[in-house]
Amino acid sequence: MSKRKFRSTALQDVDWANVREKLKNQPVVVAVDVAKIDFYATLMTPDRQMHVILRWKHPLQTRALVETLQAQLAGMNFVVVMEPTGTYGDPLFDLLHQARIPVYRAAPNRTNKAAELYDGVPSMHDAKACYVIGRLHLENNTERWIEPTAQQRELKAELKLLEMYQERSQRSLNRLEALLARHWPEAPHILSLDSVTLLQTLAHYGSPAAVRAAPEEALQLMCRTGRSGLKPETSAQLLASAETTIGRACEDAERYLLQTLAEDLLAQRLAIRELERRLEARLADDEMLSRLHTVVGRVTALMLLAELGSPQDYPSAAHYLKALGLNLKERSSGKHKGQLKITKRGPSIARRYLYWAALRWLKHNRVVKHWAEAKAQRDGGSKSKAITAIMRKLVRALWHVGRGAIFDPNRLFNVAALPALKAA
After folding, report:
1. Residue extents of the structural domains in the chain
2. Distance of alpha carbon 278 from alpha carbon 315, whole angstroms
3. What is 3-144's CATH superfamily?
4. pTM to 2 decimals?
């Protein structure tokens, strides 16, 4: 395949009469390489021939591209296939969807691995990527790109917002911890860093010196904030520590920084609480979410529904497992026996939340804990394999619970084979 084969033409310079003559009413695959600005596409027929490679500037010419395809390929059987490259291709997908043009998705990892497959050259560039994407589609290695539902889009946005708030809150908490270690090191040993009482005290006074200057007002503030949850001896201890602290005295700017960090943390707490209330309301209104919630918890259930849709959309538990990238792969050759590992395809954020759900399950369920210990012992002490196995069992449980089954953790394990449980 020569370099000349990958020569591209600007959208406005394409000789469409010549292109239509070459196509001869054959089925056409419009394979698109998505980028930030410079988009490329090729028109490929079932004989694997590229009849034109066109390029255009996104977003300025993207609408013109869709209108041109509609006009010049009218009456022809054509589809568009593209990679889900971040969010850059979403406007093009929306325009194609509105024009009722079928869109297929090529997995980026397949495109990368096929770089050398068709021409023996491991290089990859925009025009060649179009060719590879088109070939993958003609060989049935793509899937129909389904538009996410309004519910999924709302859930994704709210969960991203929750994650943003939590990350920002954690960063502020880390900064506050560092500053208190310098100016009031005793305070975090009396009240936890995220204690509302401590945060309100810092937001109002900012430094132990300011608390020392108004001890009675500071005590009243603590009592109003902590209410019945704050023990009198705890507030007294915090006041005493402000008197005897070994921390460095604050300059005015340092005191203001402490106050600002505390105010920011309090604001983040309120925002997170409000968002969690909205998410909980979704659980109450959705039967599917309520069922999944019993297996993996509130936020994980919402995340799975947002990223993958309903478990009912998958014909088997194995398909659902594969969509999460938790199906197994092996690399063996001759006498070498490779280890089984998960493929890690699909949304990594969903696997991360499942991992946390598995850890919670491991901590709170006696059967799961003993099963994991027995498996780790069989695997030479590797706990990570046991956690991965628990994640896989959770996914299978989710698929069945999504179809109305009652969740029973003991059904996922051979309890009779666990020595620790039999001894108990």
Report:
1. 3-144, 152-282, 286-330+344-423
2. 31
3. ATPase, nucleotide binding domain (3.30.420.40)
4. 0.78
